[in-house]
Specification:
Layout: H1 19-22, H2 32-54
Length: 55
């Protein structure tokens, strides 16, 4: 018999941060989507600066 590949794709690991832990860093009325977008932009900038520093 040959091995069959799984019919269901493996799930990516998830990271969940409670809004209550980060909402104080954002203006009132920011949606969860806006918070996520801002956090991802900040992480991208952090990553780029770290890469520059390591060179």
């Amino acid at each position: 018999m040959s091995a069959r590949s799984p019919s269901v794709k493996p799930r990516e690991p998830q990271l969940t941060i409670a809004v209550s832990k980060v909402e104080r860093y954002f203006p009132k009325g920011f949606s969860s989507e806006q918070m996520e977008s801002t956090i991802l932009k900040l992480l991208e900038n952090y990553y780029r600066k770290r890469q520059d520093y390591e060179r």
